[in-house]
Design brief:
By secondary structure, the chain is mainly alpha-helical. The chain has one domain. It is extended and about 75 Å long. The mean pLDDT is 82.
Amino acid sequence: MTLSDIAAGLEVTAEQKDRGVAAVDDTDAPLAERLRGFADRLPCTPEAAATLATEYAAGASIGDAARAAGVAPVTGAKTLHRLGEPIQPLGPTGREVVRDWLDARLARTEAVELAGGDETDFALAAYVETHDPIPGARDAVSGALAVETGDPLAETHSGANEFL
């Protein structure tokens, strides 16, 4: 078989098709229904959370997804965090400052200034530090959001005895 035989039938296109975000949802219940059990711990209604997760997974920004769900962008970010999506408005130093403020080692005005964000970023970072993702909610949205719970780079880490 020659190279021309292998290449027969191949064609080059000038544009690439946008396939969107791949998502697999193999559950029978609608997302809003699966989130009803967590309604008391979510910052918005299960219906709004379902719309938010669906829009966000389709590629919308947090703000656009929140507007589609009928909630404020900060509420959208809080909800996505509670659903297991990694949301963090501040860098590592800013998070340390927020922790210091939460431990009453800094005044709020000083902490906001040192954190490097604005009042909204600081408030969201404080929420993230004081509210863990809801474990069961991660499972409920696993088909809608690509929630990565493990270390995505685990296979690249070397073992401790590799150099012995």
